[in-house]
Amino acid sequence: MNYKSYRITLAFHVLGLLISLLVLAFGIVSPNTYAIVGGIFLTLLLVYRLYHFVLKRFVEMDDFFESVKYRDFSRWFSEEHGSQDIRELHKGFNLVNKTIKSIDSEREAQFLYLQKILEMVNIGIIAYNVESGEVLWANDSILKTLDFPSFKNINFVEKRHPQLYDELFETYHSNTASVTLEMKQETLKVLISDTVFEMEANSFKLIVLQNIEETLNQNESDAWKKLLSVMTHEIMNSIAPISSLAETLETNIQNNLNNPQENPLDIEDLDSGIKTIKRRSEGLLKFAKTYRSLNKVTHLNLASVKIAELFKNIQNLMQPSMESSGIKIDFSLDNPDLEIKIDTYLIEQVLINLLLNAIDACQNKDNALIQISAQKKINGNIIIKVADNGKGIPEEIKDSVFVPFFSTKKTGSGIGLSLSKQIMLLHKGRIQIKSAEGTGTVISLLF
User: Which domain holds residue 28?
Assistant: First the structure.
């Protein structure tokens, strides 16, 4: 800010006062009556003008500070009248007022913006003065949750619902807590947290309240829907091969009844097929019981099973489906006496899932082949592999295939692989995938 004119004017006043004092001193020494009278008059005049000159600037500043004190930043100081230094001083005042008004406007806009956001969120928020109980701010969500009209003091809640008042305003929740509020006509499950903060020498308490009753009900409903979807998926996976095998056996029996000589009935095959259907049906029932509490299973019905027998059961069950699809399936086992300790019914379910995925991957593939093999590693671990020469898994989705309900199939539920992974984890094992798009997929079960 330019104070050059102020300094020059002040210098002239001081210089004039000095000259008048010299004239007065000269008159006293001479002695000269005219010099004395003229010196006194001139000195008094210049002292008055200097006092008025300085006082006027202080009055202007005091006037500005008074407006600041009462937060009156709307006042405009004239920049066209008065001396040059006064006009410059007014420009400075106006600039300060303009800056503060701009800051206030921005702060008010931010406050309105924040207020709108807090009003839109589905979480109840209230802030109040701890000493007086006066409500600083409360959004519509908390009024709706508590079924209260707008109120200015929390004493309103105390008079209307003392128990609710104690839980909300008297109890301190240092961490987010789940609380059941007893309302007039219902109980309400909510999450509540609060904190105390200081502002302008006053203590305020901020309470955040989230109604989780609807969320819990929705989550429960979604969980049931997902459970039904999973159960339907797994039951259909087991029923399809059972139905196919039963149809094959029925055809063989019917052909034998119509023409016994040309269609002799192989009793061993019939017995094996019926046993397979019976055993897989029992496994399906056991699976349905197990899945309901799959996350809580701590004990599996483990038994030492020969892998050759496991493969034979799977082959008997899946062979009719494989033949109808035109896909060749090959079972290979290095050691026919190789045994593994597993829950047979659950691992059969895993292998059925993997085989059905392999069949789907090999559709419309020339010379389609699925290979199931087992071997024992040097460290004693056993690996069962299901390999196909189908279309493979794209690299970009390979990490997502175990995510529940993720599926690239139009009719898929995205459940089979995620459930297979959970079953392997129950066996303290792992499941791994190696796949190349257009070449095929190898899924390994590591025990």
Answer: 4-105
Same domain, 320 and 420: yes
pTM over 0.85: no
Closest C-alpha among 131, 77, 95 to residue 1: 95
- Lowest-confidence range among 45-54, 65-74, 157-166, 401-410? 401-410
Q: Identify which of 197, 179, 195 has the alpha carbon closest to the alpha carbon of residue 187.
A: 179
- CA-nearest of 273, 243, 435, 277 to 358 is 435
In a domain, 32, yes or no: yes
- Residue 253, token pair as written in the block: 């029996």
Residues 42 and 184 in one domain: no
Cβ partners under 8 Å of residue 417, min gap 6: 353, 357, 401, 402, 431
Task: Give yes or no: residues 317 and 420 share one domain.
Answer: yes
Q: Give per-residue pLDDT as tens, 252-290.
A: 888 888 887 777 777 777 777 777 777 777 766 666 655
Residues 243 and 305 in one domain: yes
Q: Residue 374 and residue 386: Cα distance in Å, rounded?
A: 9
